[in-house]
Write a structure and sequence with these properties.
This protein is an alpha+beta fold and about 230 residues long. The protein is built from 9 helices and 4 strands. The mean pLDDT is about 95.
């Protein structure tokens, strides 16, 4: 579960969202990597607070980062913002090299295109074929196994020795993927088919910037019941 941290004196850093959202988890990880304290304004599933609607009047979705009164929306845009604003704090999240920067954004966009919708179908929050959703996740994981080989360059994470942009985009989904594995009796991360990602996932989830933010599987399974009640 996301833990709040004290913000720097005279600086307002507020994260609007729910602890069970992988998109909110992304922002929490980025802030922790940079050592930036923040206040979590908890959103309840199925309801939208006045603060959320005011801060994101276009999409009306979480997360929103409010920095000194200014709202920033969309999870990976927020991650980029955090990396730029607190550039001198903690490791760089996005690569400095333009090509590697573009590749990181490509794979992050791929993750967003394939995983959240599949998970939502399996959780009953979105209509669709559960069989096709599971197959889509398997395909995505396999392609990301291949991408890891090229991006990590023999190091611990997609971003190298430290957690980077792709790590945050993909890693934030691990809690829900593990919940799906348990609920449907499948295994997306296999020692034979995706050995590199098995090791990566263990390192990612045990990282200091992640360990207290990533929701526990049982809590997510309980959280998923809210989807069932709404449908």
């Amino acid at each position: 579960m996301i833990l709040e941290r004290m913000a720097a004196a005279g600086e307002e850093v507020k994260l609007v969202g729910s602890w069970g959202s992988s998109f909110v988890v992304r922002v929490g990880i980025a802030l922790h990597l940079k050592g930036v304290g923040y206040e979590l304004s908890q959103e309840e599933y199925g309801k939208k607070s006045e603060l959320l609607l005011k801060s994101n009047p276009v999409y009306k979705k979480m997360p929103v980062l409010i920095h000194n009164g200014k709202p920033i929306c969309e999870s990976m845009i927020i991650v980029e913002y955090v990396d730029e604003v607190w550039a001198s704090a903690g490791p760089s999240i996005l690569p400095a090299d333009p090509y590697e920067h573009a590749i990181a954004r490509f794979w992050a966009a791929y993750v967003d295109d394939k995983l959240p919708s599949a998970v939502r179908i399996l959780m009953g929050a979105l209509e669709g074929s559960k069989e096709q959703a599971i197959e889509q996740i398997f395909t995505t994981v396999q392609l990301l196994e291949d991408a890891f080989t090229k991006c990590c360059k023999g190091k611990k994470f997609f971003g190298g020795e430290t957690i980077g942009y792709i790590d945050i985009a993909f890693g934030s989904c691990l809690g829900w993927l593990k919940a799906v594995e348990k609920m449907f009796g499948v295994k997306f991360f296999d020692g034979e088919k995706s050995p590199l990602l098995v090791g990566w996932a263990e390192r990612f989830c045990s990282n200091d910037a992640v360990v207290n933010i990533m929701p526990q599987v049982e809590m997510l399974i309980g959280y998923s019941k809210a989807f069932e009640k709404k449908n």
